[in-house]
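Cast an eye over this sequence plus tokens and explain the fold to me:
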Amino acid sequence: MAAKVFVAVLALGLSACASMDRKTPEEAVRDRAQARWDALVKGDFKAAYGYLSPGSRAILPESEYVNSLRRDFWMSAKVEKVVCATEKSCSARASIEYEFQGRRTQSPLSETWIREGSDWWYVQRS
């Protein structure tokens, strides 16, 4: 009997934890988009590549992606807003700060994120 009670309590606890981890699509995209930008700001381009959609990675090899980016270009980035038009497509708006011609510049940027499988992926524009 004690074993059944333990299993029931364990199952209840695990289901409570699982429901606490559930995020809205907007929250999930905001977190992933910010993590991608944090990687870019740090110069960890391989980590940033991991956020590209499977379709983007299929046509853009990691080495090309990494070589196309400039180190120490981005100074900071903050994802400000995410709007999901559908269950599988969201637009993230970020404010990016970078150095251009010796001056710090801030610029808005919009990017597309899609849901494939159980996760959200950044769509690389060519």
Residues 53 and 121 are 5 Å apart (CA to CA).
